[in-house]
């Protein structure tokens, strides 16, 4: 079974090598923090024919605005692969990243973000 046929959240391992999902690329074209929240754009659902199966799975999961780390965990792919795929989707206009923290964010805001990301990962 490969990741293109694998259901999101399936416990079965993928036989697809991670580099094949990214065409050998190891760095995203957009800098993405692990805690960055990703949301699907409405156009993504109208243009799903442009997407691979794994990209479609990412867009579907992005209905809930998960973090990049949560996407990787839920899809069972390495975080580096998730970052490259999400960056591709950002550039194509299918998803957007919400600003998580600013330089002047308070300790409470930082703690809340960490708690949200951990909570999301625990739900997996």
For the secondary structure, the number of strands is 2
- Major sheet: size, sense and barrel closure? 2 strands, antiparallel
Number of helices: 6
Cα separation of the termini: 21 Å
Our estimate of the beta-strand percent is 5-15%
Helix content: 40-55%
Q: Please identify the structural class as seen in this structure.
A: mainly alpha
Would you identify the regions where 5 or more consecutive residues have pLDDT less than 50? 1-7
Rg over CA atoms, rounded to whole Å, is 14 Å
Give average pLDDT, whole number. Answer: 81
Organism: Nocardia macrotermitis
Protein name: DUF742 domain-containing protein
Pfam families: DUF742
Q: Could you explain how this protein is built, in words?
A:
With 124 residues, this protein is mainly alpha-helical. The protein has one domain. It is 45% helix and 6% strand. It is built from six helices and two strands, in the order αβααααβα. Strands 1-2 form a two-stranded antiparallel ribbon. α4 packs across α5.
């Amino acid at each position: 079974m490969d990741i293109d046929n694998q259901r999101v959240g399936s416990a079965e391992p993928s036989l697809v090598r991670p580099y094949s999902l990214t065409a050998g690329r190891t760095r995203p074209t957009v800098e993405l923090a692990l805690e960055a929240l990703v949301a699907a754009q409405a156009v993504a659902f109208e243009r799903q024919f442009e997407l691979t199966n794994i990209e479609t799975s990412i867009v579907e999961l992005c209905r809930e605005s998960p973090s990049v780390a949560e996407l990787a965990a839920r899809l069972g792919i390495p975080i580096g692969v998730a970052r490259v795929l999400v960056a591709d989707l950002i550039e194509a206009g299918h998803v957007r990243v919400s600003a998580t923290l600013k330089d002047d964010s308070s300790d409470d805001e930082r703690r809340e973000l960490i708690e949200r990301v951990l909570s999301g990962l625990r739900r997996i």
